[in-house]
């Protein structure tokens, strides 16, 4: 690799949990206490996948690594560390290892954690393995709300997990908070955000509770048996959390994320900018543009694709077995690991850039994104839609740059869809 290598991220999925939360639509498998995960075998499989996908990653520079799930804090730190070491050796094999990104800043290595599987000792073990950022799924600091969300920890356990992580020497610690719960006022949402910030955190992810089909909450909502907060109260809570954290010096840099200066989640920023990412592990998604190794081939009709998104086998056993016979140098199609491949043309990629870029405080330069993809940006239809949105205060345009003012972030998804 060279200093001109394309910026990219690496995502590693650990699919196991102690229990399945009723709102969660991520691929995760709840294991009863008597069923043990072979941590070494799963790490071996991910390492085999790294070796198989390395040629497709050629010409890219891994600047962030994110272990998600599932509950990666359940993974034995020694085995997680083996995977991280292989990412360093194979995907960052330019002599800099995981020492710095293009700007000279340290590579960001994040692990998602639940309070039930995180204490100071576990955090120190993760730090020893090379992890420098933890994202803790607190979700609430009220026992009754944690019970409603199906969480295994209580408020005391959440606070202890955060404090243990802070004492461990991990450089950066973030926490998740869910608002918009039934019976929760805007003032109560604000209070929980302030309590979390008071623990010394420099990053908070604050999400509205969303009800997804295919989840237990989704089924209860379909039957009309799930209590829900009304939209007005949710909107008030969003603004109250924004006001509280902004007052403490947090920058609301993305619809759901707040950070002290310099503490933004760089891995997630890569998604919102449209950067490439290599997905590793059961059910992981990956995205690579045309031109990296032989990762992407043209469509059968000869039309050139601009990128490919692949998804690995969703069943852990199938993923592990697939890595034993994986075709080296491929990503998607018949690579032996993926179960789905989507070819993405330039128009599709531009729509995704709009959808993701508008989530950020600064929005996006639509002309620059379109030029990079070789397609028109401000089409006649898009220009008309932008004028309609601008008249209603839903977007702000400065030359080619378009962004959503903070009070209109509540309608971000609809705004982006109108610009497609």
The major β-sheet equals: 9 strands, mixed
Number of strand segments: 17
Q: How far apart are the termini?
A: 35 Å
Low-confidence stretches: 94-104, 291-303
The helix content is 25-40%
- The CATH architecture of the largest domain can be named as Alpha-Beta Barrel
In short:
The chain is an alpha/beta fold and 420 residues long.
Structure notes:
With 420 residues, this protein is an alpha/beta fold. It folds into two domains: 6-270, TIM Barrel; 348-418, Arc Repressor Mutant, subunit A (Orthogonal Bundle). Helices cover 36% and strands 21% of the residues. The chain contains 14 helices and 17 strands. It has helices at 39-53, 77-91, 120-128, 143-148, 155-167, 186-198, 216-222, 231-247, 266-273, 316-324, 346-357, 366-373, 380-391, 412-418, and strands spanning 6-14, 16-17, 29-30, 60-69, 108-113, 133-139, 172-179, 203-208, 251-254, 257-259, 276-280, 285-289, 307-312, 338-344, 364-365, 396-398, 401-403. The strands form four sheets. Strands 9-10-8-7-6-5-4-1-11 form a nine-stranded mixed sheet, sandwiched between helices. α3 links the parallel β5 and β6 (133-139). The longest helix has 17 residues, at 231-247. It is globular. It starts with 5 loop residues before the first strand and ends with a helix. The model is unreliable at 94-104 and 291-303 (pLDDT under 50).
Notable characteristics:
TIM Barrel, 3-stranded antiparallel sheet, 420 residues, Arc Repressor Mutant, subunit A, alpha/beta
Topology readout:
Blueprint lengths: L5 E9 L1 E2 L11 E2 L8 H15 L6 E10 L7 H15 L16 E6 L6 H9 L4 E7 L3 H6 L6 H13 L4 E8 L6 H13 L4 E6 L7 H7 L8 H17 L3 E4 L2 E3 L6 H8 L2 E5 L4 E5 L17 E6 L3 H9 L13 E7 L1 H12 L6 E2 H8 L6 H12 L4 E3 L2 E3 L8 H7 L2
Parallel strand pairs: 1-4, 1-11, 2-3, 4-5, 5-6, 6-7, 7-8
Antiparallel strand pairs: 8-10, 9-10, 12-13, 13-14, 15-17, 16-17
């Amino acid at each position: 690799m060279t200093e001109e290598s394309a910026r990219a991220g690496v995502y590693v999925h650990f699919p196991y949990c102690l229990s399945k939360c009723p709102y969660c639509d991520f691929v995760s498998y709840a294991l009863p206490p008597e069923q043990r995960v072979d941590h070494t075998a799963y790490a071996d499989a991910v390492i085999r996948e790294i070796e198989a996908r390395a040629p497709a990653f050629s010409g890219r520079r891994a600047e962030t690594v994110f272990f998600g799930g599932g509950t990666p804090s359940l993974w034995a730190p020694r085995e997680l560390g083996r995977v991280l070491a292989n990412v360093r050796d194979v995907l960052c094999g330019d002599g800099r290892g995981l020492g710095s990104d293009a700007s000279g800043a340290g590579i960001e290595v994040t692990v998602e954690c639940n309070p039930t599987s995180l204490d100071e000792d576990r955090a120190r073990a993760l730090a020893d393995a090379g992890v420098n950022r933890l994202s803790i799924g607190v979700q609430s600091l009220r026992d009754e709300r944690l019970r409603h969300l199906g969480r295994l920890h209580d408020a005391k356990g959440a606070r202890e997990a955060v404090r243990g992580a802070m004492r461990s020497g991990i450089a950066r610690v973030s926490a998740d908070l869910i608002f918009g719960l039934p019976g929760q006022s805007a003032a109560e949402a604000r209070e929980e955000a302030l309590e979390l910030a008071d623990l010394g955190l420099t990053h908070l992810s604050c999400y509205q509770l969303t009800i997804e089909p295919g989840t237990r909450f989704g089924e209860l909502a379909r039957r009309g048996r799930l209590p829900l907060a009304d939209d007005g109260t949710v909107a008030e809570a969003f603004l109250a959390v924004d006001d509280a954290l902004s007052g403490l010096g947090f920058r609301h840099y993305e619809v759901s994320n707040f950070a002290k200066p310099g503490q933004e989640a760089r891995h997630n920023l890569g998604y919102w900018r449209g950067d490439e990412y290599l997905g590793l592990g059961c059910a992981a998604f990956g995205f690579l543009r045309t031109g990296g190794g032989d990762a992407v081939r043209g469509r059968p009709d000869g039309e050139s694709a601009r990128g490919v998104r692949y998804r690995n086998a969703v069943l852990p056993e199938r993923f592990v077995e697939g890595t034993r016979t994986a075709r080296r140098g491929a990503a998607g199609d018949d690579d032996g690991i993926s179960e789905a491949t989507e070819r993405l043309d330039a128009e599709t990629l531009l729509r995704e850039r709009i959808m993701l870029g508008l989530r950020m405080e600064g929005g996006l330069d639509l002309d620059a994104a379109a030029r990079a993809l070789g397609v028109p940006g401000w089409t006649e239809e898009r220009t008309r839609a932008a004028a309609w949105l601008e008249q209603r205060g839903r977007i702000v345009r400065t030359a080619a740059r378009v962004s959503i003012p903070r009070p209109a972030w509540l309608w971000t998804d609809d705004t982006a869809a109108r610009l497609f």
